[in-house]
Amino acid sequence: MKKLFLLLIIFAASIKMQAIAQDCKYFKEGKDKVTGEPFKESRNVVVKTYAFQLRKDGATKLSCSMDITIYGASTYSIKMKDTLYLQLENEETVKLVPDKIYAPTKSAGMSGVVSRYVPTYGMTKEILEKLAASPISKVRVSLENPVDGPTKKAEAQAIMKAAACLLAD
């Protein structure tokens, strides 16, 4: 009976270890076609009307990108002064600025015209460590009319997990 119990404990522990080892799955992995550098991207995490994605290029280049959709035909371009604010649950605020100017792309859909932005924000290892340590509670994107809103717990946990995985690699 003791042997059976010991085997069950070993079996349960091995299943848990396999689950831990499989935690870091990426949305996209590969080599950059231009630079040949390996890259890893977290999955998109929807937050209100935008998606959030973390990326690591090579060993050290970190960034996040937003996929922002706004109803209507916007002519406003995201400028380098338009800050992305990430309010963390521990009351700390992370501020990121876009790496260049981003003009909207417009398209017509069933609900009318939408404007879409996909800006990229450079990050440091220290910022990624903050995102891995505390969940994001609120996001604000500075635009002509700021877009902001709270994150859902599952979304914040997914961002924390993605940040921790990119730090571990």
Structure description:
This protein has 169 residues and is α+β, with helices and mostly antiparallel strands. It has a single domain, classed as Immunoglobulin-like (Sandwich). It contains 3 helices and 12 strands, in the order αββββββββββαββα. The strands form 2 sheets. Strands 1, 2, 3, 4, 5, 8, 9 and 10 form an 8-stranded antiparallel beta sheet that branches. The protein has a 4-stranded antiparallel beta sheet with strand order 7-6-11-12, with helices on one face. Strand 11 (136-141) and strand 12 form a beta hairpin. Helix 2 crosses helix 3. Residues 1-22 have low confidence and may be disordered.
Proportion of residues in extended strands: 35-45%
Please work out how many helical segments DSSP would assign. 3
The tally of structural domains comes to 1
> What name does the CATH topology carry?
Immunoglobulin-like
CATH class category label: Mainly Beta
User: Shape, please?
Assistant: globular
DSSP, total strands: 12
Low-confidence stretches: 1-22
Give the topology string: H per helix, E per strand: HEEEEEEEEEEHEEH
Termini separation = 42 Å
Q: What's the gyration radius in Å?
A: 19 Å
Average of per-residue pLDDT values = 82
Helix content: 25-40%
Structure classification: alpha+beta
What is the CATH architecture descriptor? Sandwich
Largest sheet: 8 strands, antiparallel
